[in-house]
């Protein structure tokens, strides 16, 4: 006898599959590289000699031209010195908690919601806990918007950057 799913059960199962695809990857796993050259990217190199967090953000509100630049320095979970980041305390706390994994791309086989949050992009360079960061953020799909929102203290809200 074939199994018959009722419409609400089928919709619930489909939603669970979609949400699972947008979940963050397991800590400690290496992200797969994305193949399209135009997609946001992140690269992480071997640890640097210093364990401080020091980042520079270049915001491109139109997606192409740098419209603003700021820096963030953290001593653990607290900001160190002046910063132009939207919320330095929240940014340092998020970086102390999530570390370098916040800059990782989702695996290439991750199913992401097809939504567009705007043309804005941000380029982040520097170090987190002594590891080199060179990452790009965009609002081109649900996974990328989630990456951006995990660093709202550093980047500002994804939808507000327009």
Low-confidence stretches: 1-51
Average pLDDT level:
78
Report the major sheet.
6 strands, antiparallel
Secondary-structure element pattern, one letter each: HEEEEHEEHH
Quantity of strands, as a count: 6
Could you describe the 3D structure shown?
The protein is α+β, with helices and mostly antiparallel strands and 162 residues long. The protein has a domain at 57-162. The chain is 25% helix and 27% strand. The protein has four helices and six strands, in the order αββββαββαα. It has helices at residues 7-22, 88-98, 142-150, 152-155; strands at 42-47, 53-60, 68-75, 78-79, 118-128, 131-139. A six-stranded antiparallel beta sheet has the order 1-6-5-2-3-4. β3 and β4 form a beta hairpin. The longest helix has 16 residues, at 7-22. The protein is globular, with a radius of gyration of 18 Å. It starts with 6 loop residues before the first helix and ends in a 7-residue tail after the last helix.
Using brief descriptors, characterize the structure shown.
162 residues, alpha+beta, 6-stranded antiparallel β-sheet, 4 helices, globular
Topology:
Layout: H1 7-22, E1 42-47, E2 53-60, E3 68-75, E4 78-79, H2 88-98, E5 118-128, E6 131-139, H3 142-150, H4 152-155
Task: Give a short overview.
It is built from 4 helices and 6 strands.
